[in-house]
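Need tokens for this chain, all 176 residues.
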Amino acid sequence: MEPTSKNGLPETDEPVVKRLRAMAVDDIRALLAPYGLAVTCLDDGEPIPGSFWGDTEAGLVGDMLYVRPDTPVHSALHEACHYICVDGPRRAVLHTDANGDDAEENAVCYLQVLLARRLPGYSPGQLFADMDAWGYNFVLGSAQAWFERDADDARRWLERHGLIDAEAQPLGRCRI
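Here are the structure tokens for all 176 residues:
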């Protein structure tokens, strides 16, 4: 018998975040198709190729995003945004680690918020909660506080590289 918590749900070491099994994978495929990123959904328990963190985390190999039904939605969006934000030479050899700097990592986080707005069944509010539960670390204490009050540099980075317009709308293309 599995141990249960006070609310009667099974205890787990993993944070409670929205998983892909609660969404239509075809919606994620449609969201990422303009960027040339394909999505392969593996079965639960299968190893995820290109996963930087392992376990249930999404993986990147070339132009393929690997996920499972138990992959957190925020992880799929984060890795997809790495693909979008890396420059062309790194994208050509992308495998597991995008090797970006801090400015690029912030841009990745910002872009995943913008894409969360466009993903049916998900939202920036859910993304912020998932990021906080998973342990993203922001100086202001939460993902939402960072996005609303300390992410201007990330937005400018995305604009400078032609990934969003002046109204912070994603343009459906990857960094050159």
